């Protein structure tokens, strides 16, 4: 995420974007597809954003529609969309000087973040889910390896003080994983931070 954006919402924020990537584990393509399908079916109710709002998900400030191009990354990587976070699930403990929390939630059947793509008619299309886990909390719980989904380790996001950009987007080090529902010839591509199937061309401002 562009470093000037500080995501704070009463007691919750969420980080989005690309960062230092943990080396993925090898996973069978069929198993990855099957695991993604389980998540898609379990979260179908969120096709209606009103259901998400009723369950405590809120648009993450500043309500932007995120794309790789906006992050200074190759445009062909595609986009993410508009993030709706669940503050209670993220367990934020502070927002300054960096956002920190106690969240170790990894259950994608009940994700902590939902992602929507704006459509031409002004509605939102549910395209992805995301889980964010704070590194210190994860290790304090006795874990050594990063969390994983379908055999692939979550992406590790931590700021590199030797660069101008803030790779952790004002967050303490954390793990992050997206799951996109648009099918790909290689299902593992649906676990990347961005998806070429997602566009922000119809985004008209904060939701």
How would you describe this structure to a colleague?
- There is one protein chain.
- With about 210 residues, this protein is α+β, with helices and mostly antiparallel strands.
- The chain has one domain.
- It has 4 helices and 11 strands; from the N terminus they run ααβββαββββαββββ.
- It has helices spanning about 30-40, 50-55, 85-90, 135-140, and strands at about 60, 65, 80-85, 90-95, 100, 115-120, 125-135, 150, 150-155, 155, 175-180.
- A hairpin with a 2-residue loop joins strand 8 (about 150) and strand 9 (about 150-155).
- The chain is globular and about 45 Å long.
- The two termini are about 20 Å apart.
- Residues about 1-25 have low confidence and may be disordered.
Structural category: alpha+beta
Number of domains: 1
The string of secondary-structure elements, in order, is HHEEEHEEEEHEEEE
- Specify the overall morphology: globular
State the end-to-end distance.
18 Å
Q: Mind telling me the C-alpha Rg?
A: 16 Å
Low-confidence stretches: 1-26
Major sheet size, sense and barrel closure: 7 strands, antiparallel
Query: How many helix segments?
Result: 4
Helical content (DSSP H or I, runs of 4+): 10-25%
**Residue share in β-strands:** 15-25%
Arithmetic mean of pLDDT: 84
> How many beta-strand segments?
11
